[in-house]
Design a protein that fits this description.
By secondary structure, the chain is an all-alpha fold. It has helices spanning 2-6, 8-13, 19-51, 55-80, 85-108. It contains 5 helices and no strands. The protein is elongated, with a radius of gyration of 17 Å. It starts with a helix and ends with a helix. The mean pLDDT is 91.
Length: 112
């Protein structure tokens, strides 16, 4: 992912010559560097809880987080505040991070 970010300007240049599109693409690649660790935390710990049978907790936290942050905040930041795709990516990062932290706290709390 880091290589994609580092060479992103050159790679995006193959698809468009519009500097605004390239600038947005580079910013999204930078945000993707933040998204991936959050996604791996969420997926790893969520699947660990699923493996020991705690499927309802991950389901409920996913439904609530994706509904409120993934959809609601994405609309608010992306459309209402005018952040566009960058705002939607920020909300994706927040959603993955929140779900990852919730399942990590559940795992460490030994509730199951």
């Amino acid at each position: 992912m880091l290589l994609l970010f580092l060479f992103g300007r050159n790679l995006l240049g193959y698809f468009t010559s519009d500097p605004r599109i390239i600038t947005i693409g580079i910013s999204l690649l930078a945000l993707k560097l933040l998204l991936q660790p959050c996604k791996m935390l969420n997926m790893g710990m969520g699947n660990a809880l699923n493996a020991i049978g705690d499927t309802r907790y991950t389901m409920y936290t996913s439904i609530v987080s994706m509904s409120i942050i993934g959809v609601g905040c994405s609309y608010w930041f992306g459309i209402s505040l005018g952040w566009g795709l960058t705002g939607i990516y920020c909300c994706m990062i927040a959603d993955e991070f929140l779900r990852g932290m919730l399942v990590l706290m559940r795992w460490r709390g030994r509730k199951v």
